Structure formats: C-alpha cells, structure tokens
Amino acid sequence: MLDASPVDTQVFFSLLDRSRTRSGMDDASALRHTVERAVHAEKIGLHRFWVAEHHGVPGIASGAPAVLAAGVASRTSRIRVGSGGVMLPNHQPLVVAEQFLMLESLFPGRIDLGVGRSLGFTEPVRAALRRDCDAPDTFESDIAELRSYLDGSAAVTARPATAAPPVFVLATGAGLEVAARAGLPVVVGGPVLQKDDPLALYRKHFRPTPSNPEPYVIISLDVTIAADAEDARRLAVPEAWAMARSRREGEFPALERASAIDESQWTPQTRNRIEASLASSILGTIGQVRSRLEEVVERTGANEIMASTSTYDRAELFDADAAFAQLAGVAG
C-alpha cells in the first residue's frame, strides 16, 4: 500500500465496534470477536475502542455496553474503552453513573462514557424498554442529572465514589446544541456531515468548563481500507447489503460473506440503496482514504476520527484496522 503517511499527527484515530453478528455464528462469538478486535486495536496503537447499545437487533449482539466495556478493559491495558453510546432514554441516570464509576474504579483513567438519545428501532423494542415516541424529550436534563452523580454534586452520592470518566454526546441536529450548552465533546456522523460547516453552531455556543475548556469533535465514519479500491468495495458490501435488507425487510440482519452476496440478483431499488451506502462511506486504498480523511479533518476541524468499519471476514477487518492505524502514524 502506498502513501501511508499520517493524516495529521494531532488527530487521534479510534474504533467503534458494534459487535456485528455473522451468518453461521452465534451471538456469543460476536462478543468474543469484539474483545479480540479491541486487543488488536491496542496492539496497533489506536486511541479508543468503543462498544454500542442496540436492543433486539439480529445483526448486533451488544445490548449492554457497560458489561461489554468491562470485558474489553479487562483484556487490554492502555487503550481507552467506552460506550458509543449508552442511550439515556433507556436508563435512569443514577444507574448509568454507577455503572461507569464502577468501570472507572476498576480501570482508572481509561473509561469513556458516550451517551445518545436514540430510541429502539421498532415498536416492540420501544415497548419492551418502556419508551413512548411521544414522551417528552428529557435528554438535556438527563445529561445534567447524570453529570451531577458523576461529579458528586447530586443529593444522592453515586457509588463507588471516584473520579468521573469523561462524558461525550453522540449528536445530530439538536444534540449538538445540547452538547455545546453543557460544554461537552461531541461525536458526529451521518447526514449532518454533509452540511457546509456542520459544527459552526456547536463551536459558537460552546460553554467551556474546567474539564472541557475547548470544543472537542470526534467524527464517526465507515472507513474501509484494502489493497485496491475494488477489494475495499468488496469488504464494504456485506454491511451495505445488511442496511439495504433492513430497509426492505424491517430487520437488520447478520453479516454475510461477500462471496455469498449475488449482486446479479439485486433489484434496482436494492442496488440504489447499496450504492448510496457505499458512497457515504470512505473506502479505497490507503492513499485514497488518506486524501478523503484529510478533507474531512480540514472541513470539520475534527480532533479525532472514529471508524465504525465492519465486514464478514475478520482477518481482512484486522488488516483494514492496521492500515487505518498507519494513517494515524501510530502503528509500529
């Protein structure tokens, strides 16, 4: 691979792993694979490794990020470990604080708490979580309450009493304004990045705090690197295929082998959805991806890039992660 020089030595590179299930493997394998990938991410020098929260989704095994983060942190020693993220509408802030203070006590100085506001994907999941789409939006007040437990200023003292892990807001639209008012770092991805200056209002309205004196931006992207552009596309197709199937069938499925996905059988609508998904990703050779990431960093002023790459073949996934780390200038 050519042109593996760093994108920017001041920009951190990290991974978000959603514990994607794979056709022919059980859910427990997906969780073990997540831990193994975290060990590899630490070995190649990446900055953070975050896990996700999804409920009742066949394609994702992780429904309890605090538990999975403990498993990851116990098998690593340096890399920062966290949630990308805990969905606050599903939890009492005190319980979230207790879970992450526990993690911080066990793995001091390595824990991150990313929080989001997404509800369950389907009505049965939302009902199981006791969530109503028409319920008032309490995300901002929930964050304030959570932080009061973490910093010890609440009327109830969350245990164990220890240093608070940093809090990050997974933000789109109004979430950016919430993060700015709270003086918290943001994780941004998806359509909001298509705007000319997607973070202008966040930076303009950011209220500094002792722990966050300046805005901090993590950009989350699907990034796939391979020996050539066609290989990168092949690796990205299983995730794009799963997304297209979820739109068609209403259920996000496990990853399939790229060789098992017959492109000749795609309907025009499915093909359009897959091509749109691939177009929104950053994929190609290490040089091609480097150029794209440089543009993203220049346009957004990102402090960090967090790749949410997934594919069926784990060996090729590890190779893609190693190439990603080379772009951060951290791999040995």
Quick rundown:
By secondary structure, this protein is an alpha/beta fold. It has 11 helices and 10 strands. The strands form 2 sheets. An 8-stranded parallel beta barrel has the order 1-2-3-4-5-6-7-10, surrounded by 7 helices.
Describe the SSE topology.
Elements: E1 12-17, H1 27-43, E2 48-51, H2 65-75, E3 80-87, H3 93-106, E4 111-116, H4 123-128, H5 139-151, E5 167-170, H6 174-182, E6 186-188, H7 200-205, E7 217-221, E8 223-225, H8 229-249, H9 268-279, E9 282-284, H10 286-300, E10 304-307, H11 314-327
Parallel strand pairs: 1-2, 1-10, 2-3, 3-4, 4-5, 5-6, 6-7, 7-10, 8-9
Helix pairs in contact: 1-2, 1-11, 3-5, 8-9
Brief descriptors of the model:
332 residues; alpha/beta; 8-stranded parallel barrel; two-stranded parallel ribbon; 10 strands; globular
Widest sheet: strand ordering: 1-2-3-4-5-6-7-10
Show unreliable segments: none
Q: From N to C, what is the helix and strand string? A: EHEHEHEHHEHEHEEHHEHEH
Structural class: alpha/beta
Q: What is the end-to-end distance?
A: 15 Å
Relative strand content: 5-15%
Our Rg estimate from Cα atoms comes to: 19 Å
Mean pLDDT: 92
Give an account of the 3D structure.
With 332 residues, the chain is of the alpha/beta class. 42% of the residues lie in helices and 14% in strands. The protein is built from 11 helices and 10 strands. It has helices at 27-43, 65-75, 93-106, 123-128, 139-151, 174-182, 200-205, 229-249, 268-279, 286-300, 314-327, and strands spanning 12-17, 48-51, 80-87, 111-116, 167-170, 186-188, 217-221, 223-225, 282-284, 304-307. α6 links the parallel β5 and β6. α1 crosses α2 (65-75) and α3 (93-106) crosses α5 (139-151). The two termini are 15 Å apart.
